[in-house]
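Check my protein:
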Amino acid sequence: MKKSFLKKGLIAALIVMGGMGLGQKAEARSSVVQVKGSDTILNASQAIAEKFMSENKGARIAVTGGGSGVGISALINKTTDIAMASRNIKDKEIEQAKAKGINVDEIVVGFDGITIIANKSNPIKDIDDKTLGKVFRGEITNWKELGGDDAEIVVLSRDSSSGTHEFFKEHIIREGNSKGTQEYGAKTLYMPSNEAIKQEVKANKYAVGYIGMGYMDSSVEAVTVDGVAATPENVLNKTYPIAREVFWYADSAREGVVKSLVDYAVSPKGQEIIKNEGFVPVK
């Protein structure tokens, strides 16, 4: 998969100035569109924003991460125009937004396969989803139980602000039961980003974690789940068991640069960027 030209995990403000070219009034030209949230689609969203600004001189867009929950909270509190998320917005969040006068519109910008990764020297190359749940719940703690070395499994997860953390908990740890109560194991190490998980797995022979497929590279080993690899084809045909949509959320009453940027993200140009960033385009 093609790596982003932006450093992984970078939290950046992308600002380009010039003439508007978007039919904006002169007094609106100084405003900066804020895009905030999911680290999983941070790099893809940065790439979309940069390309959009290169084609629309004067559009100013700042893209920052922090996690899906951070982005959705910022949308509710009106401190961001677009929230990036790797989980669905919750009913209570929709109601909170309505109370602030925001009618939230859900925009699917792509599909992602949550990739299980291990150190390249680890002999375990496949794991079934039920066993994976036991590992992340702390019920299986030694690699020898999986046919590997006699060594403790170092379990890595995203932190609780991450939409990927929540999706993985519901679909793997709670085995798809939205009302389940199972949690990550007591010894789980919580990491602030996809890149942090990848670097720890690269350095630690006995670590296992998960990342968005757009962050996968040759420095770590992708572990298949139920014998199925996290590839764009398998995500699209729904054979990969840990696949999900990734979203932008915005006010349905959006206009100006915000509307144009959302339209651009789901246009052929925007979807080509999604593909180049390692995700599966919607169309």
Q: What stands out?
A: The longest helix spans residues 42-55. The longest strand covers residues 104-118. Residues 1-30 have pLDDT under 50 and may be disordered. Residues 113-243 form one domain.
